[in-house]
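User: I'm putting together notes for a lab meeting next week and I want to include a structural view of one of the chains we've been expressing. I don't have a solved structure, so I'd like a prediction I can at least talk through. The sequence is below, exactly as it appears in our construct file.
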Amino acid sequence: MYAAKVLVVDDSPTMRQFIVFALQRLPGLQINEAGDGVSALKQLSSEKYDLLLTDINMPMMDGLQLVGLIRNDVLYADLPIIVITTEGAEVTRDRALEIGASEYITKPLQTARLIEVVRRLLDPEIR
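Assistant: Thanks for the context. Below is the predicted structure for the 127-residue chain, given as structure tokens.
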């Protein structure tokens, strides 16, 4: 896997810390954080990312709005996006994937599953 820049978006500092800790098991990742969709968009406008992980339920701008806006930006049309949420309903999952999420993972988050998905999305050679 190559060095990659990752943005973790979640309004819960504890959840962000958990995700960052899990991602640090993968060598070469540069990990940044945002507390909501608005902050994430600001970071995306000034830096190039290789992967984005987002919660759905956040203040200011939820994760589904964020995914939709990212998919409408030519620069990020192909950015892999992982939605990590407590929303387990099939309709929410289907909606997230329909608007452009690459993967949908429900909480409680399993570190092994997260690492497997991140590896696969960052390195297309891994199946």
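A couple of points you could mention at the meeting. The helical segments are 13-23, 37-46, 63-71, 90-99, 111-122. The radius of gyration is 13 Å.

User: Perfect, that's what I needed.
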